[in-house]
Amino acid sequence: MASTINGTSTGNGGLISTGDDSGILNIQTNETTAISIDASQNTTFAGKVTSAGALTLASNGTTTAVTIDTSQRVGVGTVTPQRKVSIVGADGASGQTEGNSRTSLFLDNNGANYLSIFTSTSGDGGVFFSDNGSNNGGMVYETSNDALYFKSNNAERMRIASDNRVYITCTSAPSATVSGVRLGNPTEALCAFSSGAVTIETYQLGFYNGNGLVGRISTSGSATTYATSSDYRLKETIAPMTGALAKVSLLKPVTYKWKADGSDGEGFIAHELAEVCPHAVSGEKDAIDAEGNPDYQAVDTSFLVATLTAAIQEQQATINALTARVVALESRGTV
Question: Domain range for residue 277?
Answer without folding.
Answer: 244-331
